[in-house]
């Protein structure tokens, strides 16, 4: 049983969790990034690619993706997350939905590319006092997946289905 | 009488409020967006357009604006808010000022347009434990309004006029 | 001795500190910006320019930089900070690392320039209940400085060197 957290406690904690996570990702510490998932975690980051599973699988998928996409190019990527919505469930899961932009800079080129725009659906759990990602599903705005549910789709769309009462008291 | 909130409580709560609000807006749930205003709320979103008033008026204005601007184009917009400043007033009003960017993606086009850059002036109130917007005024950086005060301008500029003592303790 | 803060208290407080700071900066209130540093604060904002020191020196450097860069152009800049990581040290220093983007709008031009992408390394201290910057070092992604340590580099890289255990409990 995980006790519910106040939004005051949870919100900055999740913001810091994401900051730690993307600083690792953008430094190409793929093992550290994968270590932010549960052992059996699932990660769907690009439409058309099968989901990666387990920490080992997630780290391998990220290495492969970067190699295919950038080869030896010394690009610096920066993942920005924003407009974070958190929803604590009675079973202790934390459903998190937020916007993401990827900023990519090439050495000597002052103006970065900012693309794509995404919305990310996470399921977080707490394990021995640590936050971990059970699943992450990234939707790309330019490649709408429509009504297609992700494989093992329990983690998808859930935050969109909740009754929204914007501005309600903390829960 | 609304009791004052600590910044620890208020800041994440307002961030979540805005996240819920823009996720609704960007899903074109204009009624949900309008429902984040007080019944007599006022919304000035674009220079040269008269302010919309009341929830009904705000929802109608958003529908009209989207129809004129995008017609049947299947664009996906994402509103990003950042650099949020909160100022609690003795009367319980919360004055909020922040930056905004609008990210617009068209299907099949990977790189979104990011424009315009804005600064937003909100007045929030708490009603039966719920945050609601009493007024929102959006300034567009590319169309400076100069010294022109908005109609019923009590809500405008106020956060800029306060004595800034950056880094002061919570209040 | 500064007591350690909970992340719940510290994180929103630093976010508000940065918001206050950049609203001042983007309004060209360089004295207010400089006043967010300690009296002997150090500010390195652009590769190749020597660090500015003391509040007077920082305000002067900003005035000079803006004059050189923009002259009388009526540009509106907006500094966006994101993906904030905070690390409290036993001696009371708060090491803060975050991403930054500069959004620059020219009157009449709807689409702003968004550049450069940066990562910022701050050292914050608390003085008489107020947060102040002891040092700020801005790395520009398009001009990698490599292994070159900044002058008086105690403040640099430190947050990257800490043992990252993402999602660990508050400390």
Automatic annotation (TrEMBL), chains A, B, C:
Residues 146-156 have a biased composition (Low complexity). Pfam families: SnoaL_4. It comes from the Bacteria. InterPro entries: NTF2-like_dom_sf, SnoaL-like. Residues 145-171 are annotated as: Disordered. This is Uncharacterized protein.
């Amino acid at each position: 049983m995980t006790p519910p957290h106040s939004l005051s406690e949870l919100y900055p904690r999740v913001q810091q969790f994401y900051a730690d996570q993307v600083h690792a990702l953008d430094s190409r510490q793929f093992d550290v990034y994968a270590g932010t998932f549960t052992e059996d975690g699932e990660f769907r980051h690009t439409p058309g690619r099968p989901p990666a599973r387990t920490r080992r699988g997630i780290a391998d998928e990220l290495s492969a993706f970067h190699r295919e996409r950038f080869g030896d190019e010394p690009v610096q990527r920066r993942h920005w997350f924003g407009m974070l919505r958190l929803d604590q469930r009675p079973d202790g899961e934390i459903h998190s939905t937020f916007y993401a932009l990827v900023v990519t800079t090439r050495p000597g080129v002052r103006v970065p590319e900012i693309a794509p725009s995404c919305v990310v659906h996470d399921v977080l759990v707490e394990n021995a006092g640590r936050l971990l990602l059970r699943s992450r599903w990234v939707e790309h705005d330019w490649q709408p997946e429509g009504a297609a549910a992700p494989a093992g789709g329990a983690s998808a769309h859930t935050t969109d289905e909740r009754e929204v009462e914007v501005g309600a008291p903390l829960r």
